[in-house]
Design goal:
alpha+beta; two-stranded antiparallel sheet; 2 strands; flat
């Protein structure tokens, strides 16, 4: 499975903190962080 597919699967899962996690994701992406998928979780990097 591609990283993008894994990210979408992770964020589409139903869990208790889904809306909070979505807000944090938006903040990270709005700050220019690069989103990737490592260690079975989304990760964010700055200036690789």
């Amino acid at each position: 499975m591609e990283k993008l597919e894994k990210l979408e699967e992770f964020y589409n899962e139903t869990h208790h903190f889904k809306s909070s996690v979505a807000e944090l994701r938006k903040l990270a992406l709005d700050c220019g962080l690069k989103e990737t998928y490592k260690w079975s979780f989304p990760t964010y990097t700055f200036e690789d």
